[in-house]
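Any chance you could type out a protein's amino acid sequence plus the matching backbone structure tokens because I've never seen that pairing?

——
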Amino acid sequence: MSFKKISIYSLGLALVLSSCSGKKEDEKTIYENKKFAQNKENTVKLSEKQLQTVGVTTTMIQSRNMEKLVRLNGKAEIAPSHMSSVSSIMGGHIKSIHVISGSHFKKGQVLAVVEDPQFIQLQQDYLVTRAQLESARLNLSRQRDLNISKASSDKTLQTAQADYSTLNATLKGLEEKLRIIGINAKGLSSGNIRSRISIYAPFNGFVSKILVNNGQYINPADTLFELIDPAGLLLELKVFENDVNDIKTGQDILVYSNENPDLKLNAKIISVVPSIENGGAAMAVAKLSSPNSDFVKGMYINAEVSISGRNTPGLPNESVVSFENRSYVFEDLGKGNYKMIPVTAGISDDQFTEILKADFLKDKKIVQKGAYSLLMMLKNKAE
């Protein structure tokens, strides 16, 4: 009877083991990694033979003068002050368009021509008002002379003065309207009245969008073109939390694009936004030292910032090992015993790695040669 119970128990155990063997390999790996990470001792002991094979050497935390090279990435954008929406001051029909999307233009270049009868009426009103003003000026002069000799009343002189002032104000207003639509009022006469006005480029740049077509009627509020002034190109760069304190306004940087990494241009950081967003990064804004047409809005940008040398605690690079995106060192406990300790690595060069908040490592013997071998042995031990 006892034998039967043992057999049934063995069969159940076999079934459990069989079902476990069907689990996915990645679940096994996760388990093993957790087991390794949760090993409270995190120690490994080497035999005399292993010590000779690995050839462990030790060092201690030391202060080094190191330079930090921070690498940033982001996108090229245009400052809002250098993006313009162009419209017509007065409505009308688009008679012709002189640019295409992406084309470059110079300040004062004609972008489009608009036609409408109201332009004719505005010029007529100006010419008529100018003639009436001249008549009012002569009448005012005459009334002043007559008033001196009391040949006309003060009221008549006042009326003449009011008529002249009203017409003068009207003329100035019409002159300003003509200036805004690009017509020189001083050179206007009945012989050169025109029904068309030109839309001029306000600066040097290129066309981002064209929102009209020939023959279309536009209102004064309608946008005809969206223009970009490349002088307003800004580089918006992500600065991760570990580097925030090293990035300052006024720093010189080198920038380059993914398409042409060998072409590195000088730029300067003009502002740093003092806020770390959900992605764990702040934003620095830089500007090219001189405009370059190879950099355009929306392009992905890389940057390098060289931080001046500073004294900082560190260890030789081979002392610092990595596992699952974390950094570790091994402390020599003596008699072939070594303990793995998590550390926070900072900057590094071709020889040393900075250790942040390294006071707890003071006076400890840290493994230099053989640290990676100890990591592999400890991992195998956990497995």
Notes: The first helix runs from residue 2 to 20.
